[in-house]
Amino acid sequence: MGWKSMALFFTKKIGAMTMHEIIWYGRGGQGVVLAAQILAEAAYIQGFGGVTSAPTFGPERRGAPLTASTRIADEPLRTFSQIEYADVAVVLDESLIEALDVPGRLKDKGVLIINTALGMEEISLDGTFDLALIDASLVAREQHLFMGGLPTVNTPLLGALSRATGLVSLENIERGLKKKMTDHQAYANLQAITAAYDKTVIHAQ
Question: Residue 168: which residues within 8 A CB-CB, separation 6 or more?
Fold first, then answer.
């Protein structure tokens, strides 16, 4: 199945739900909260009537595990509690997959997106979910995109999410990013989003 038909498959599956819940997993300093905010902005631009984003727990101390959430719905949202089980999980730091039991917080037939240099045949995770892999760190290095001396992986993963789910278009992800950054900051990030979109590898259960 080619990537275009894969995106349509995910769009149909997720779009059948009233509300889409996304959890972002990373570490302080990786821009987890900003990624959740950009996705919410992009979803609003796309026409979703209800969007929210928030850190899920803990202060954003550099290096400490941190999660953030994005909720997207066709109509205004009245749900503001923490997400218990997500439709989509986005992992900025693969060392957190087992530490935070990421598969255990993913709904059946959800989508798991991981920043990793490993290939699909090297990933062994239990669960009935679709898997999308992108070496976001490599993409960031190729685009000379760094945050605190480390590759900036939050924005490439927005491109991977667009490709893997079809929930929000690449164009609107880019428009959402421009709302959150200056033109100077946005340029390299936009390049990274597009590169990650093209390089994301998807395996459907």
Answer: 39, 42, 43, 46, 72, 161, 162, 176
